[in-house]
Amino acid sequence: MLKARKYGVSVHGITVSQEQVRYADQFYKDLDIKIELKDYRDLTEKFDRIVSIGMFEHVGCKNYRTFMKVVHGCLKQDSLFLLHTIAGNRSVNSTDPWINEYIFPNSMLPSAKQISAAAEGLLVLEDWHSFGQYYDQTLMAWYRNFIKNWNKLKASYDEIFYRMWTYYLLLCAAASGQEGINCGRLCFQKKG
To answer: What percent of the residues of the chain are helix, what percent strand, and what percent coil, each to the nearest 5?
Structure first.
């Protein structure tokens, strides 16, 4: 959000989290930033740039094409779309049952094939930067920070929460290190 000040840009964000809207309203009221409580499928405005960070893995494979159609419809001509997502190295239609139950319900990791198919005919892939080889380091940093700050958090969370999240972070770090999980940044341009 500091880039909004540095580059003098207007930012329009959407989220389905009331907490994120409240946070943005409180901390960014002096900037040209508007964060709305809105589902991405309800967007109709046109934008010069669209950025999606850590959200695509939560729309579900049945909605990948819909997501790309919304992006296509909201991009002005010759505009760019940056998609940052955790991804899997094979196409799936569901997620790990434990992760679905306790961590991220209804999430799934899109594959390169699924992302490309969803964008085909709508967006032109200009760049695909994969940094999955570093994602395990990120997960381990999150794990260390979680452990280090647990004493500050434990008044609000129980031991089960602690065990679930340490297990989850270590599980994902191991999967990332074994090339089961990837992480990438894709840059698309509007087609036509």
So the answer is: 45, 25, 30
At a CB cut-off of 8 Å and minimum separation 6, what does 120 contact? none
Please work out, in degrees rounded to the nearest 5, the angle formed at the alpha carbon of residue 20 by the alpha carbons of 18 and 24: 120
Question: By residue range, what is the domain housing residue 126?
Answer: 39-131+183-190
The span from the CA of 44 to the CA of 113, in Å, is 27
- Read off the tokens for 51: 């950025």
| Model-wide pTM > 0.85 | yes
Does residue 191 sit in helix, strand or coil? coil
Using an 8 Å Cβ cutoff, are 99 and 180 in contact?
no
Residues marked active site are found at: 172
Contact 187, 85 (CB under 8 A): no
Q: Residue 62 CA to chain centroid, in angstroms?
A: 17
Angle subtended by helix axes 132-148 and 159-177, to nearest 10: 160
Domain count of the chain?
1
Quote the CA–CA distance of 22 and 84 in Å, as a whole number.
24
Task: State mean pLDDT over 171-192.
Answer: 84
First CA to last CA across the chain, in angstroms?
Answer: 31
Whether residue 70 lies inside any domain: the answer is yes
Q: What is the pLDDT of residues 72-89, one digit of tens each?
A: 999 999 899 999 999 988
Residue 76 belongs to some domain of the structure: yes
Q: How far apart are the C-alpha atoms of 133 and 142, rounded to whole Å?
A: 16
